[in-house]
Amino acid sequence: MASEEVSVEEQVRALALAEDLRATLGRFVRGVRTQANTPTTSQSETLSLLDRSGPLTVAELAERRNVRHQSMRLVAGQLEAEGLISKMANPADGRSQLLSITDHGRAELSRGRDARTSQIASLIEERLSEEDRRTLGAAIRIIERLC
């Protein structure tokens, strides 16, 4: 019985820790994106997916990003209007089109990543002691084990 109580306590602590991690990382990512003036998460995730996977249809993008087709179509329209992606005929299905990242899209994706990395580096330099930096390095390795 005592081991069950400990297990429940461990579960409660794990849930609380998970919520704290989720909320903190979310605030951190949103703050860095805002301060670095980089695209919305939906835009950057879509560009990253096209960069990694190659050309995809709107339906495939929506499925892989776990969003509605209509939402993905809106994001794709914004990206296309900005010249970050382009459409091409789908050789496997003449009724659909493939979306692919453009050279401009790759450059913007890289610029955004660099800007966010620089913003994070500035925050680390400004706000963290050497001991905090070592602790952050250890925390990153722990988080990687969760991936």
UniProtKB/TrEMBL annotation:
Output the superkingdom of the source species.
Bacteria
Q: Which GO terms describe its molecular function?
A: DNA binding; DNA-binding transcription factor activity
Q: Is DNA-binding a UniProt keyword of this protein? A: yes
Respond yes or no to whether keyword Transcription regulation is given for this record.
yes
UniProt xrefs under SMART domains: HTH_MARR (SM00347)
UniProt xrefs under InterPro entries: HTH-type_Bedaq_tolerance, HTH_MarR-typ, Tscrpt_reg_MarR-type_CS, WH-like_DNA-bd_sf, WH_DNA-bd_sf
List each copy of the HTH marR-type domain by range: 1-145
List UniProt keywords, sorted A-Z: DNA-binding, Transcription, Transcription regulation
Per the UniProt record, one Pfam family is MarR_2
The record, for SUPFAM superfamilies, names: Winged helix' DNA-binding domain (SSF46785)
Q: What is this protein's name?
A: MarR family transcriptional regulator
Organism of this sequence: Rhizobium terricola
